[in-house]
Amino acid sequence: MKKVVSQENLISLQSYRTFFESTSESSTNRNMIYKTISTPLFEKREKRSQLSTRSAGRIASPSPVTISSKIKNRNIHQDIQVTPELASQVIKQFLLPMFEADGRNIAAKSRSSLFGVNSKENSERTAKCKLSDIISKQLNMTNKELENLKNRWTDAELEKKRIQAEIDEVKGNLIGSICTLNNLKYQIQETNKSMKSEQLNASLVNQQINEYRQLNIKKEADRIENIDQLNKERIRNKMLGDKANELQHWNAALQMQNDIMGERLKGLYGACEDLCGSEKSTEKIDNEHQIIRKRCDDLFGFWVKTEEDALQTTKSCIEFIFQNDTTSTKRLGYRDEVRRLKNTMKEILGAMGKKVSQAKDERDTYEEKCSQMEKKFKEINESYAKVRLQIKEMNAKRKQFGLNEEKLCKNCNRPFFEKDNYNWSCLRHAGKWNGMMYWCCGNIKEDTPGCVTSKHESRDEDEEEENEPTEEIEKKKYNKRCPSCREIGHLPSQCPKDPNARSNVSQTEELDRIVLAKRRRDRMGNMSNEVTSKLKSMNKLNQLGEIKTMRSNFGFEDIEEVRMAAVTSPPINVFEIAKRKSERSTTIKHRRLTRTNISLSKELAGIIDSNNELTPKGYELNSSRRSNLKLSPIDTKNPETTCETEKGY
């Protein structure tokens, strides 16, 4: 029976819901009726029916209901038709009793108002009102639950969409990974094929390497033979190079003579162009020109012959040297000396390398100090700029006070007021302090008052900025030519060729500078004297009878002398040149050996400076040149041949 009742109740509930949803005019009435139907009483009855069916074992346990299944069933719309029988039952059971109760309540109110008596109907009505309040509260609760369920449903839909999007992403990633797997499999197959081909190539390369090793052994033996031949050829080439240098030297001398002759011929042509006179003078000039051309042709032919003779003589000398090559033992001795000197030089270079590393470390420390000083300088400049701005502001304020403003004199750098400024207020010197005295007035003290009197002159800030020396002005000063030496890069006060001594520099340095400048001048004078003497000796040999008459007529003596020197110059003796060259080379080698011995002896003896008075045994000081003080080793056998080494030579 319980089962039948529950089913009937369910059918009635469904019928009521469908009827009110279709026939109600407003949403408020629908909600109220729906709330009355879904009351806890109906839920209790359903629970009791389910428990009875479970205890009897007639009905199986229901499956668990999930939120998703509820949402899906909720979206399904059940089309139920409302019959007139259902409508009549609802009106009889619910609507008519409600209207009857309202009519009773109205009658009870009228009675109570007339007779002042509370009837039982009022109590029943209050009870019914209480029940209606409870039912309305339950309806509100159910509405809230419905709203919560709707929110959950929307959240579930959003989560479903998010999960679906994630699933799509995962599917895309899976497809991409499958593609990459296929690509990797294909690459593995390709790499296996390439590995097999490389293994075959490696085997072939190993075979080729073995063949090349055998060839390398043969080539190494051939290379050793070629090295021996190269050493022999180098010795021959050195000899030929020495002879070629000699020939180049004499060729340069001949070219110098030709240049001199060319310059004089240019002068002759210029003089001929400047000549003006009768036809006889022009004829004489033409004759002279023809004679000069003939002589030049003769000179060129003679020069060619001399060159050919010199080449033949050098060839004969070279053949003679190769035939009489008996200097192998001397070369071995020189090689031993060279090795010994190389070892000593390596030791010296190692010591110098250590000194260089120490100097580098010192340079790094000085660079760090310089960077720190630059930073400080920048900070000071910034602070200076700030102070200048403050001073400008203060001066702008002070200008309002007029005569009471304190100003700074640009001549004596002293503050003053305009009201106290007289013609004798400013005292200054016309010249500058040179470290010893003032040249303007002869005062010896630096802080003596000035010898020139005048008014104070104020210094404006704009004038200060204009008068400040800039880098561009200094560069322009250094780009100008020095008036004493006509060179660029220094001021006249810093000229190294100035013969006068300076007062603001140490006297020893000034004496050394003056001595060096004097030596340079003497050296240049000696060179010019040698050149002039050679030219004069060449001019003395120019004596021909035919040219004397022309020289007396025209007066071109220098051209005649050059011409005669070219004609009457003696032939070149190659053997004498070779002797001079050998003597010169021996003297140069001796000087180099003495210099290396001097440097080694200085380092071993521990000579620190040229100003030290102590000298080791076997050395003497050259007292004639104190400015360039150095040691010269004494030859015990020949004390006169002491080698003097000077700084700068």
From TrEMBL:
Keywords: Coiled coil. It comes from the Eukaryota. Residues 45-64, 451-475, 613-649 are annotated as: Disordered. Residues 621-632 have a biased composition (Low complexity). Signal peptide: none annotated. Residues 132-201, 356-397 form a coiled coil. The keyword Coiled coil applies. Residues 460-471 have a biased composition (Acidic residues). This is CCHC-type domain-containing protein. It comes from Blepharisma stoltei. The lineage of its organism: Eukaryota, Sar, Alveolata, Ciliophora, Postciliodesmatophora.
